[in-house]
Amino acid sequence: MSSISSASATPPTLPPLETLIACPACDLLMAAPSLEAQQNCRCSRCHHLLYAPRRQTFAQVIALSLTVAILMIGAVFFPFLEISAGGIRHQSSIFDTALAFSEGILLPLSVVVMALIVVLPLLRVTLLLYTLWPLAQGRAPWRHARRAFRLAEAIQPWSMAEIFVVGAVVALVKLAGLATITLGPAFWAFGLLVIVVTVKDNLLCDWTLWKAIDTQR
Amino acid sequence: MESNRHPTLTARAAGLIGCRACGRVSPGDTSVCPRCGGALEPDRNLSLQRVWAWMAAGIICYIPANLYPMLRTSTVATGTAENTIMGGVVELVHAHEWAVAGIVFAASVLVPIAKFIAIAALAISLRGRATMSSHRRHKLLEIMDFIGRWSMVDVFVVAILSSLVQLGYVVNIHPGPAAALFALSVAFTMLAAQSFDPRLIWEKDQGYPA
């Protein structure tokens, strides 16, 4: 990838804007090379990863997104953890975990926790499915696909399933001496979900997707 | 490619504007990206104003988050005990759970404070002469953007503990007000890091005023 150098103060005649890419991190203007044949393509100044075109991955991302949705729905309703001590047992699901804050003034935090660990991850895969489904079949994108994909990207840092799993492990260690803990099916579903989400996000190349939205009509 | 030493053309210098979300280049006076519909901001000083505003909100929430209890544990034997963030870490250290104590300490104390300092230092570095290269400052910003969300771990620990440990007369755990304050602080500092436009760091390098 070659950067466009400005030899003089007057800007050179620029090629059509569609063929350019401005590095989202450092603003360097580059000629977008052909999407084929390139491996991981980085900005020549700041080394920000611009794209890793994997055109064949649309179908894989769809499959993994469906997997995430199914695992998440399972994880919400099956028991997450069970505790027993002194002859008393108590079971809690992921739903109960979010509702832990539902007493009194902390109620809004319940809504936030539910959003961070269940709603936003689900919303993200739903939006990805909506964007990718027609594109994977070589058809024109559905209406509002651009908005859907931009929202899916904005949600990504707020989708905290993997952080929740680390939180669960910390909680288990804290309780280890106090009581007997049984890991429920939802715990394993959630652990698996984290792996699938990571693989899916690594396969997804946003530049390739934007290009497909732009060109498939 | 030693582009650092050669004159390079940024979208801004060419009278264009690049989209932070999708990389699409548009004429300089465009306000909405034609490809992704994201907002394009010609005035990057707005970015810094937002950074400072979110940072201030984050610090305002972080201080009481450390003073109020995060957890209330009530048992028959010992009555009710309250734990702050640091109290929870100390308890883990006493239990010789070094690894988990380390995780909680890093996520709840080190990361938030490092983030306040790093982002403030980056914002200030745009004004004067920076001691770190653009590359290193950009890397620092990316790290801050990446690790910030992991601070939320403690909020989830509190949620799991207080939903699970409901054992009638034996032991009960309830969340304290610090959980909400801490969650807010993490969210605000995440927004501060996201608002920081990394192009400001590179612009300075080229002699364009921030």
Percent in helix of chain A: 40-55%
Order of SSEs of chain A: EEEEHEEHHHHEHH
Shape of chain A: elongated
**Number of H- or I-type helical stretches of chain B:** 7
Biggest sheet descriptor of chain A: 3 strands, antiparallel
The radius of gyration of chain B is 22 Å
Low-confidence parts of chain B, pLDDT < 50 over ≥5 residues? 1-6
Task: Count up the helices of chain A.
Answer: 7
N-C termini distance of chain A: 27 Å
In CATH, the architecture of the largest domain in chain B is Up-down Bundle
**Uncertain stretches of 5 or more adjacent residues of chain A:** 5-10
Helices and strands of chain B, in order, run as: EEHEEHHHHEEHH
Predict the CATH topology of the largest domain in chain B: Butyryl-CoA Dehydrogenase, subunit A, domain 3
| Number of domains as seen in the coordinates of chain A | 2
Give your account of this protein's structure.
The complex is a heterodimer of chains A (217) and B (210). Chain A is an alpha+beta fold and 217 residues long. In chain A, 51% of the residues lie in helices and 13% in strands. In chain A, the strands form 3 sheets. Chain A has a 3-stranded antiparallel beta sheet. In chain A, a hairpin with a 2-residue loop joins strand 5 and strand 6 (88-93). Chain B is α+β, with helices and mostly antiparallel strands and 210 residues long. In chain B, the strands form 2 sheets. Chain B has a 4-stranded antiparallel beta sheet. The two termini of chain B are 26 Å apart. Residues 1-6 of chain B have low confidence and may be disordered. At the A-B interface, strand 1, strand 5, strand 6, helix 2 and helix 3 of A face strand 1, strand 2, helix 3, helix 4 and helix 5 of B.
